[in-house]
């Protein structure tokens, strides 16, 4: 799906830690960061593939787990008409309120409910498709959330999970040793499960799912998102003592200079995993 790369307003540094701090979820910085991620063309390709591989279309009932303020949820709500339905669930009351505002403004009927991915408030076999995008990496019990996605999806229905692998983070700061230190600190601290994608095929197969398909994209950051993100992670590494203060300043200066010169490059690997849910009698635990 071709997507226009629109210019972004300058914004303060972002930290992925804050997506787990749901009291701050509705802050403008994080809303803007999620919108900027959502615009990245290579991530859009994975979203489009998720739609295709889960056969999301008219008449389907789709559940978006960890829906945030509904960026993809609202698009799916259009796709399932006529006859379908979309439900979005998120732990953040603020994000659910914002998603409801956006759905109302767009004239879309979407069931948006606050709740926990690890204990979904829905019956077994309730939906045709359950999806989660950039959610499992933040959870203390991603295995429970995965089992819940499967439980609420009817036999023959599909699930889709889109998550990054933090050890694939890439940036063109020339000092390779400094890059290794900063990116290792980021991978080890930014989220709870930085390398979770590597186990998804095995986990889904153990749960009895079939047709497990994996697709990946190196998602290239837009220049403005790259400077926000990569400048911030150097500061975080210095604050935590993973690198010294001088190296932290050198990192930030380098990232900002590369951005000013139009040469900053950053990317991270994202994976889409889709699978088919078997009858309850064939499900694992
Ligand atoms: C990076 S955002 C992704 C939002 C959305 N899926 C998107 O791609 O725009 C992570 C989301 O997971 C939500 N979240 C974190 N822990 C959760 C949990 N235990 N149950 C449900 N949602 C959760 C956060 O509130 C946040 O909206």
How is this structure best described in words?
The longest helix is centred in the C-terminal third of the chain and has 17 residues, at 223-239. Mean pLDDT is 91; it is low at 1-12 and 18-22. Helix 4 (93-105) links the parallel strand 2 (85-90) and strand 3 (111-114). It is built from 9 helices and 7 strands. It has a single domain (16-280), classed as Rossmann fold, CATH 3.40.50. It is globular. The protein has helices at residues 28-39, 41-53, 71-79, 93-105, 142-151, 176-189, 197-206, 223-239, 245-260; strands at 61-65, 85-90, 111-114, 127-133, 153-171, 210-220, 266-276. The protein is an alpha/beta fold and 285 residues long. It has a 7-stranded mixed sheet, with helices on both faces. Helix 6 crosses helix 8 (223-239) and helix 8 packs antiparallel against helix 9. Residues 63-160 form the Methyltransferase type domain. InterPro entries: Methyltransf_11, Methyltransf_Superfamily, SAM-dependent_MTases_sf. One of its GO terms (molecular function) is methyltransferase activity. This is Methyltransferase domain-containing protein. Keywords: Methyltransferase, Transferase.
Shape, per Cα inertia axes: globular
The CATH architecture designation is 3-Layer(aba) Sandwich
Extended strand count: 7
**Ligands, ions, cofactors:** S-adenosylmethionine
Q: Can you count the helices?
A: 9
Classification by helices and strands:
alpha/beta
Strand order within the widest sheet?
3-2-1-4-5-7-6
How many discrete domains? 1
End-to-end CA span? 36 Å
Strand content: 15-25%
Low-confidence stretches: 1-12, 18-22
CATH homologous superfamily identity: Vaccinia Virus protein VP39
What percent of the residues sit in helical stretches (DSSP H or I)? 40-55%
Instruction: Give me the strand/helix succession.
Output: HHEHEHEEHEHHEHHE
């Amino acid at each position: 799906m071709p997507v226009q790369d629109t210019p972004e307003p300058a914004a303060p540094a972002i930290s992925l830690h804050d997506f787990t701090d749901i009291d701050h979820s509705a802050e403008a910085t994080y809303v803007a960061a999620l919108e900027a991620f959502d615009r990245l063309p290579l991530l859009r390709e994975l979203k489009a593939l998720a739609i295709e591989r889960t056969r999301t279309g008219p008449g389907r009932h789709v559940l978006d787990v960890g829906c945030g303020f509904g960026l993809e949820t609202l698009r799916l709500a259009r796709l399932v008409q006529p006859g379908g339905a979309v439900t979005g669930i998120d732990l953040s009351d603020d994000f659910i309120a914002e998603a409801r505002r956006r759905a109302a403004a767009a004239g879309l009927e979407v069931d948006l409910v606050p709740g926990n991915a690890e204990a979904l408030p829905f019956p077994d076999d309730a939906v045709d498709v359950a999806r989660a995008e950039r959610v499992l990496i933040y959870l203390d019990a991603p295995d429970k959330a995965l089992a819940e996605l499967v439980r609420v999806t009817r036999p023959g229905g599909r699930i889709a999970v889109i998550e990054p692998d933090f050890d694939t983070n890439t940036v063109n700061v020339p000092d390779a040793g400094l890059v290794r230190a900063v990116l290792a600190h980021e991978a080890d601290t930014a989220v709870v499960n930085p390398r979770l994608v590597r186990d998804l095929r095995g986990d889904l197969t153990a749960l009895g799912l079939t047709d497990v398909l994996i697709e990946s994209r190196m998602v290239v950051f837009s220049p403005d998102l790259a400077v926000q993100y990569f400048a911030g992670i150097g500061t975080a590494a210095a604050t935590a003592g993973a690198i010294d203060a001088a190296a932290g300043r050198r990192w930030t200066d380098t990232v900002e200079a590369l951005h000013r010169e139009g040469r900053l490059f950053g990317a991270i690997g994202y994976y889409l995993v889709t699978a088919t849910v078997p009858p309850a009698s064939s499900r694992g635990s």
